[in-house]
Design a protein that fits this description.
Distance between the termini: 56 Å
Structural class: alpha/beta
Largest sheet: 6 strands, mixed
Number of helices: 13
Oligomer: single chain
């Protein structure tokens, strides 16, 4: 039987979607879904304080990058005790989660056994599906992986406006800015631009398959989007709301089109927008709800909410 340690939250959710939760024996400090995994031994921790403001966390991450020191600890003693057959990690971002480098360094220091390392790289929606297949293949259940991917894809039919027969209607696509970090500003990249386009929006910043780019407020002001989505990496809704002063205190903020029209939305970036696993489907549904008010909002209030202009 496999003994799986997942060191990235989205991978834990992939293992769950594959029906292998009972085979998980360890997790990262960030793995919190499904609820059952919270009782598993924790194998990692951040080396920096993660309870500061957006600006403070950014400064700590950049200082760590200058010294090439990882911002995460991997507990070799816990891994040794758990004797995993599989360790799932990622190479997409060394800031967002424990990376392949971190795991390799831990193994080099004497972890017994020869666990199979499964490293994920979810740069786009297609690669999220490939990562799911990769985990399934490593666990020797490839057919189950294909079935899960097919079921998830079936729930993500690109948005098509329903226009009555014989009606001529010109529909503009709302211009969307999705913000992944507040101070300094960073736009969402990787899979998010693709989800915005699938949901019927026109993405303004960031490119599908490329890392999230830094930006500045002047760029946001000049583009003047119809919709602004704020979904900081690792932040839930209350924490996102608490950080909004970085934007709302700017003199030009009230003049933005999205602010004046009440189309600024706050989202749970931790649980949805920045988890490249099965709940990418819910992220797509959230974007559809934001961009198309006629849709009954199943996720509103729990995963996202409106922010009224001040």
């Amino acid at each position: 039987m496999p003994r799986i340690v997942s060191l990235i939250a989205s991978a834990t959710e992939i293992v769950d979607a594959l029906g292998m939760t009972a085979d998980l024996v360890g997790r990262s400090h960030e793995c919190d879904y499904p609820e059952a995994v919270k009782s598993l031994p924790v194998c990692t921790r951040p080396r920096i304080a993660v309870d500061g403001s957006s600006r403070e966390i950014d400064a700590l991450v950049k200082a760590s990058a200058r010294t090439s020191v990882s911002i995460y600890d991997v507990f070799e003693d816990v891994l040794a005790r758990l004797e995993p057959t599989h360790i799932i990690t990622q190479i997409q971002c060394e800031v967002c989660a424990v990376s392949l480098r971190d795991v390799e360094q831990a193994l080099a220091r004497g972890i017994p056994g020869r666990p199979q390392i499964v490293s994920l790289q979810p740069d786009s929606l297609a690669q999220i599906w490939e990562d799911l297949r990769r985990v399934a293949a490593a666990l020797e259940i490839p057919e189950r992986g294909e079935a899960v991917v097919a079921a998830l894809q079936a729930r993500m039919t690109p948005w098509r406006p329903k226009v009555p027969a014989g009606t001529v209607r010109v529909l503009g696509r709302p211009r969307v800015a999705c913000i992944e970090w507040i101070e300094p500003l960073m736009a969402a990249g990787n899979w998010t631009p693709e989800l915005i386009e699938m949901a019927g929006g026109a993405n303004l910043f960031g490119e599908t398959g490329r890392h999230s780019p830094w930006m500045n407020f002047e760029q946001l002001r000049l583009q003047d989007p119809d919709v602004i989505v704020i979904a900081p990496c690792g932040f839930d809704l209350p924490r996102t709301e608490a950080e909004m002063y970085w934007l709302t205190d700017r003199p030009d903020w009230p003049q933005l089109r999205a602010v004046k029209s009440g189309r600024v939305y706050l989202a749970d970036g931790n649980q949805y927008f920045n988890r490249p696993g099965p709940r990418v489907v819910e992220t797509f549904e959230i974007l559809c709800e934001m961009l198309h008010p006629e849709i009954a909002p199943r996720h509103r209030g729990r995963a996202w909410r409106d922010m009224m202009s001040r």
